[in-house]
Design goal:
Number of strands: 8
CATH architecture: Alpha-Beta Complex
Number of helices: 4
Distance between the termini: 31 Å
Number of domains: 1
Shape: globular
CATH class: Alpha Beta
Structural class: alpha+beta
Largest sheet: 4 strands, antiparallel
Radius of gyration: 16 Å
Length: about 170
């Protein structure tokens, strides 16, 4: 079973991201716009309940997150993906680190760059043309994230929510 942990932004921000994703993101139909907190991790089906318990425990230590989306950026030349840049905060980085412990599959494969993907799987020429247009777009979204979601991948490649957790900061 493949799982991941994400935060979904507000409907307003999802609608904004989808206005680009429906044209430029090959994963548009597989998952709604999201902030990946823990990338795809493969586990046995029998492990999902213990993973869920670990995520719930972590959420008890974190209060709702404030995020600010400030601009459109790109991972090029490493990857031809374009994204909405989320300004990193200490709380967001700490949550990411907490979700990359041994009970949840260990260390992150990549350096954490908080973002919402809006375009991917493009040729270099297509990427350069689209990014050249989009990077001039004025972006300014601020919002609170009070929930994160444990997702799992279905056979058709789409993702669905296994469980939702409140960031309570109770501990």
């Amino acid at each position: 079973m493949k799982y991941g942990i994400v935060a979904f932004p507000s409907k307003q921000l999802q609608d904004f991201a989808n206005s680009y994703r429906k044209r430029y993101d090959s994963h548009y139909t597989k998952i709604t716009p999201h902030i990946t907190l823990k990338g795809v991790t493969e586990v046995k089906d029998s492990q999902i309940d213990s993973i869920s318990g670990a995520v719930k425990e972590i959420c008890n230590h974190f209060s709702p997150l404030k995020i600010h989306v400030s601009k459109i950026n790109s991972f090029a030349p490493v990857n031809n993906a374009i994204y909405l840049k989320i300004d990193p905060t200490e709380e967001l980085l700490d949550l990411h680190d907490a979700l990359h412990t041994d009970p949840l599959g260990g260390k992150a494969e990549y350096k954490f760059v908080p973002h919402i993907t809006i375009a991917q799987d493009m040729s270099s020429g297509e990427h350069d043309d689209i990014f050249g247009q989009l990077r001039m777009t004025n972006i300014d979204f601020s919002e609170n994230i009070n929930r994160i979601h444990l997702l799992y991948q279905l056979e058709d490649g789409s993702w669905t929510v296994y469980e939702t957790y409140r960031l309570t900061g109770e501990i």
